[in-house]
Task: inverse folding
């Protein structure tokens, strides 16, 4: 049996979250544990569920992805964070990596 990688998906656009979920559901080694639409929910779910991987948007309501990543680092330090975003600004990429993202 292949170990399951528990995934939390965070994006404010529900159609995009559904698309990502749809793509990942075909991967037997991945288990989507939750999907949420804002940064505060992301921190709460990360603390509650302790996912292995968090796919995180930067432009989120209530708490942006950069600040959410910093808080997630404190409540779920074992989680890997990957940002899924259209933002290509080098300063934002540096900030994301500084916030604890792996990519």
Result:
């Amino acid at each position: 049996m292949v170990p399951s990688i528990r995934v939390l998906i965070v994006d404010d656009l529900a159609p995009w979250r559904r698309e990502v979920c749809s793509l990942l559901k075909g991967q037997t080694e991945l288990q989507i544990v939750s999907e949420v639409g804002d940064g505060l929910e992301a921190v709460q779910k990360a603390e509650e569920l302790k996912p292995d991987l968090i796919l995180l948007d930067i432009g989120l309501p209530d708490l942006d992805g950069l600040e959410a990543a910093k808080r997630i680092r404190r409540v779920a330090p074992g989680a890997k964070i990957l940002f899924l975003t259209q933002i290509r600004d080098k300063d934002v990429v540096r900030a994301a990596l500084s916030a604890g993202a792996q990519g």
The chain has one domain: 5-98.
